[in-house]
Amino acid sequence: LKIEKPRGTRDFLPDEAERRRGIEQVMREIAESYGYREVSTPTFEHLTLFTIKSGEDIVKEIYAFKDKSGRELALRPELTAPVMRMFVNECSVMPKPLRFYYFANCFRYENPQKGRYREFWQFGVELIGSDSYLADLEVIVLAYNIMRNLNLDFILNIGHVGLLRKLLEDVDEVRYHRIMRMIDKKDLQGLERYLNSEGLEGYLESINELIRLKGGTEIIDHAREIIPDFDFSHLQNLCKGLEKLQIDYNLDFSIVRGLDYYTGVVFEAFAKKGLGAQNQICGGGSYRLSHLFGGSDVPSTGFAFGFDRIAEICEIEPRAIESILVASTAGMELKALEIAEKLRKLSKRVLTDVMERNLKKQLSFANSIGARFAVIVAEKEFKEGKVILRDLEKGEQVVIRIGDLLKRLNREL
Ligand code: HAM
C-alpha cells in the first residue's frame, strides 16, 4: 500500500529544494540589507489569534483543531497575526521601529490548484511602530527590489483602504467587512444585491466610482471628488517617494485585500506571465492589530510574498556544486574516509562509498551522479603516500601525492 501525500501539499526533491533555497537567499540578503532581522514563531497558535479580527467565518478556511486537552488551536494561515502576538508578548518595550522578516510555511484549507496549495511558504516582513508614509514607502521599495533582483516580470498596484473606510464610516463593522469581502472578490452583482437588501443602496454609486479608479496620481483628484473630507496627504507623499525612487506602480482603489486588519495603504504585485489565475505574488499594507492582542495600539506595515508562486516563475538557478567521490579498494575504506574529511574543506560535495561495493561499481556510481572527480585510494599507491586522481569529465588520471591533493583539486574546481 503506497501512502500518498496529503491533498494540497508537495514534496521537493534536491534540485528543486536547492533552487528554492537560492531564491530564499536573495530575499534574505536584501531584507537584511534594509536592517530587517529574522523572527520565527510557532507553527500552530491559539485559534482566537486568527478569529479575533476576522470572526468565526475564517475557521472554514484554516486548519483548526482541538488538542488532547481540548484547546482550540490552528495551523498558522499567515504570519502577520503571529508576529504581532509575539511583538505584544516579547518586544513591546524594544526601541521602535522594529524590522522583522520571516520565511515559513503556512496552511490554508483551500481548493488546491496551480499556485494554490494547502501548505505554502511565505517570505514576509513587518515594520512595527510607524504610521508615517516613509514606513509604507520602505516596505514597498523592499518588496519591489526583491522582485526586481529575482528578474520577475510583475506589476505593482497600490491602494488605500482608508478611502472605503471613510466612505462607509457610518456602516457597522460587520456590514463593512461583508462589503469589503465582496469588493475583494470582485463580486459586484453580489455587492449590489447586498447593499439593496441592507438599505445601503445609497453607497452603491460612490463605491462603484471609487473602485473603478485605476492609473496614475491623477486619480487622486477624482477620488477627492467622491470623498472630499478624506486626507490624501499620506498617499500623495508616498507617491512622491515612489517616483523619486523610480518605482513603477499603478494606483488602484479597488484593492481592499482579503484579510480584515488593513487600515491604510495596501498593495499587491501580480506576475505578468507563467501563473495563470493565481498570479498574485505579493500582498501587504499597513494595519493595526497589537491592541487586539493585549498591547497598545501600534501602527505597522508589511507584506508577504507567495514564495511558491515566485519559485514557480523565477528563472535564477542556484550555483552548481561539484561532486568528488573518494573511492577505495577493499580494505582501504577508512583511509578513504580520512582523505574525504580533509577534502571537505573545499566546500564541494565529497562522497564516499557506504555500500561496500567494488571499485568498478563505485566508479560507475560516481559517473551516474555526474561527479567531476574520483579520488581512488588503492593499497599500492597509498603505501607510497599517493592516490589516483581521475578526472571523470576528461577521462584522464594521474597519480598524485596525498599532500598535494587538496591544492590540486582547488585549482581544478
Ligand atoms: P495574503 O495576500 O493572504 O497576505 O498572502 C500573501 C501571499 O501569499 C499572496 O499574495 C499569495 O502569493 C500567497 N498565498 C496565499 N495563499 C496561498 C496559497 N494557498 N498557496 C500559495 N500561495 C498563497 C498575507 O498573508 C498577509 N499576512 C501579508 C502581510 C504581511 N500584510 C502585512 N504584512
- Biggest sheet, strands in spatial order? 1-5-6-12-11-10-7-9-8
Query: Class by helix and strand content?
Result: alpha+beta
Q: Give the fraction of residues assigned to helices.
A: 25-40%
Shape: elongated
Query: Which ligands are bound?
Result: histidyl-adenosine monophosphate
Percentage beta strand:
15-25%
Count the beta strands.
17
Task: Produce a short descriptive summary.
With 413 residues, this protein is of the alpha+beta class. It is 38% helix and 24% strand. A nine-stranded mixed beta sheet has the order 1-5-6-12-11-10-7-9-8.
Walk me through the structure.
This protein has 413 residues and is of the alpha+beta class. It is built from 15 helices and 17 strands. A 9-stranded mixed sheet has the order 1-5-6-12-11-10-7-9-8. Strands 14-13-15-16-17 form a 5-stranded mixed sheet, with helices on both faces. A hairpin with a 4-residue loop joins strand 16 (386-391) and strand 17. Helix 1 packs antiparallel against helix 4 (133-149) and helix 4 runs parallel beside helix 10. The longest helix is centred in the N-terminal third of the chain and has 20 residues, at 14-33. It is elongated and about 95 Å long. It starts with 13 loop residues before the first helix and ends with a helix. The relative contact order is 0.12. The model has no long low-confidence stretch (mean pLDDT 95). It binds histidyl-adenosine monophosphate (HAM). Histidyl-adenosine monophosphate (HAM) binds at residues 78, 80, 108, 110, 115-117, 120, 122, 124, 126, 258-259, 280-285, 287, 302-304, 306, 308-309. Histidyl-adenosine monophosphate binds at residues 78, 80, 108, 110, 115-117, 120, 122, 124, 126, 258-259, 280-285, 287, 302-304, 306, 308-309.
